Amino acid sequence: MRRNLILGTGLSAMFAGAALLSFFWVPFDIGALDIANKIKPPSGAHWLGTDHFGRDILSMIMVGGRTSIAVALVAVGIGMGLGVPLGLAAAVQRGGWLDEGIMRANDLIFAFPSLLIAIMITAVFGASAVNAIIAIGIFNIPVFARLTRGAALGLWTRDFVLAARVAGKGAVRISCEHILPNLVNLLIVQGTIQFSLGILAEAGLSYVGLGAQPPVPSWGRMLADSQTMISFAPHMALSPGLAILLTVLGLNLMGDGLRDLLDPRLQRGQR
Amino acid sequence: MTCVRNWGLAGVLALAGISAQAQGDIVVGLQLEPPHLDPTSAAAGAIDQVVYANVFEGLTRFDPDGSVGPGLAESWDISEDGLVYSFHLRSGVRFHDGTELDAKDVRFTLDRARDDTSQNAQKALFAGIETVKVIDPLTVQVTLKAPDGSFLFNMAWGDAVIVAPESIGEIKHKPVGTGAFMFDDWVQGDRIELVKYAGYWGEPARLDHVTFKFISDPTAAFAAVMAEDVDAFPGFPAPENLPQFEADPRFQVLVGSTEGETILSINNKLAPLDDVRVRRAITHAIDRKSVIDGAMFGLGTPIGTHFAPHHPDYVDLTSQSAYAPELARQLLTEAGYADGFTITLKLPPPSYARRGGEIIAAQLRSVGIETEVTNLEWAQWLEQVFRGHDFGLTIISHTEPFDIDIYARPEYYFQYDSAAFQALMAALKAEADPEKRSDLLVQAQKMIADDYVNAYLFQLAIPTVANARLRGLWRDAPTQATDLTAVYWDK
């Protein structure tokens, strides 16, 4: 059962490590274009070949990973930071006006596909990595709010919460001291899954030109750039495509593995 | 079993019927769909791409080599002083609605174009006209305010095609002209269809039916041509795919010249770009060869001024703004920007701009100039850059023929305001002597190069990918047009 976790963590760590490494060292400077050397297939010097501007694709993938990870990380942060408190608040009084208000607003956001929200935001405020972060972050809010509310509702009926109420603790204190700590495992797992979706969303937005703008490299834009050249330079599309695939796969496997590891009910079943 | 075979046979026959009929049909791919179909009231080149020479004709016309020849005017006489042009119209010319072309239509067209309320995008073409007089139904006399050596050239533009008062009301959606093809149908967002006009005055078209199909995405354009869904694609948007078409015996690739001076336009009024040393530094920071190879995969001729290299009066001034990053840094230091500065670079959709922009941004960065790159759609670009003047740098191809006079318009979007240049253009306009004109043109080219108004990159080339059996397509693009009147299928 731990195989998924190890494989997933390994893949994720590899890409995260490569992105971190790119802060200090990349095989080639991606700011310097080398047009004379464009569209070269993989070789000893350029492990993954060069793109249409003669940039080293491995270096582009490494630096592009930074964009993907940063965007996804902040977006998940926005989603958690806003979604979890909203979910906790909604769960305090089931069916109350606050609950109804928050959850219907959530439904409203949920009703739009995330990409559509992103296109709306970038259409109004212009295309940039920051707006991509906001767009992906907004669509993360209802995910966390709903998850938190659902799990918190169950916890509110438990005896230890009743005991805390009897002891005179207020709703905010109970939420923070008793409900939230019991949700951490759940949130970590969901956070990992949302992180992988965030990377996918960033790639999608950059692919249609609404994400990170040149010269900031991004996996999605690398795919878009290679589109017309796929028939004679498949390596240009394969590398960013595989990077997206493996990162998302790794994060999903890691999320699965973490759930197996952290979910107390599953553990009890195993014993 | 027999039944099945018969059906099969019927299918084969039906297919054969289609392919035999297809010889009179053509599907032409174009990247941009026109906003409407009146070439006399909009700047959009996409309109002329569909209707010029096919649906509408002018008094004179551009021939495939760029020379100006007779159109609806069979001949003309010019008075000694160069002021009075008498055009003799062809007889028996009928508009597609059956009405006859006469001198009144010409007067109507010219008066409409130069009217104060005219929507014409090139009003300057008609600004020199004093009066238009109808002498008899087939003769029209145009009197100019001053001699204008380029008047016949002006009348060949798509903006000067002859329209009729009877059909002007619906021209934007139901254009009625005198050309060899009639407008048939427009499915917005998809295609425009034309059919052969049986009553055409001249050599009849050899095609019966023309479909213009609009495919904006380069990948989709590639797929459509490869699958032979379109028979010809003038201005094919992905130069990187041309070697594949060249290697494929099903296709022919024509690479022609255009009137498109592709330039890095500089906002001459915006600090620090209002300093000629800064503008000069920018031009020296750019390596044209990298831009042409990287953005256009080698298609394009470097230029050093705003003039087409195939024009006889062109002077090669590229060495004056040669790639010299050291010199660029030195000039920036002299201008007080030793640490560089940050400037916006706004890019319209074509790949010469988007890819060229990335390359130029990298080249500018290496001399210390940081760029904030913004990709814009055409409507946004027209709004912000062209009309709003809200930009530092932009990349654009000026596809109008012989348009160096835009530098004499201080309100034009790059805002070059030079009294000397404006005087030069006024002198050119008044000059009819070919030798003196060419002398003035050389001076003009040098003046804008000396002032480093913009960074001149390359002359845009136009690649046309077509079925190998198609004949009669234009290779060059002396004006924006897809003239299909002489196109036919080889056996």
The fold-level CATH name of the largest domain in chain B is: Dipeptide-binding Protein, domain 3
Q: How many strand units of chain B?
A: 19
Fourth CATH level, the homologous superfamily of chain A: MetI-like
State the major sheet of chain B.
Answer: 7 strands, mixed
Helix count from the secondary structure assignment of chain B: 13
Approximate helicity band of chain A: over 70%
GO molecular function, one term (chain B): peptide transmembrane transporter activity
Domain Solute-binding protein family (chain B): 68-396
Subcellular location (chain B): Periplasm
Signal peptide (chain B): 1-24
Short description:
The complex is a heterodimer of chains A (271) and B (491). With 271 residues, chain A is an all-alpha fold.
What order do the helices and strands come in, and which of them pair?
The complex is a heterodimer of chains A (271) and B (491).
Chain A: H1 2-24, H2 57-92, H3 97-111, H4 114-125, H5 129-156, H6 159-166, H7 171-207, H8 219-226, H9 234-262, H10 264-270
Helix pairs in contact in A: 1-2, 1-9, 2-3, 2-5, 2-7, 2-9, 3-5, 4-5, 5-7, 6-7, 7-8, 7-9, 8-9
Chain B: H1 2-21, E1 25-30, H2 45-51, E2 60-62, E3 68-70, E4 73-78, E5 84-89, H3 103-114, E6 129-136, E7 139-144, H4 151-154, E8 181-187, E9 191-196, E10 209-214, H5 218-226, E11 232-234, H6 242-247, E12 251-266, H7 276-285, H8 288-296, E13 301-302, H9 325-334, E14 341-347, H10 351-365, E15 369-375, H11 378-387, E16 393-398, H12 419-430, H13 434-450, E17 455-467, E18 470-471, E19 488-489
Parallel strand pairs in B: 1-10, 14-15, 14-16
Antiparallel strand pairs in B: 2-3, 4-5, 5-7, 6-7, 8-9, 9-10, 11-17, 12-16, 12-17, 13-17, 18-19
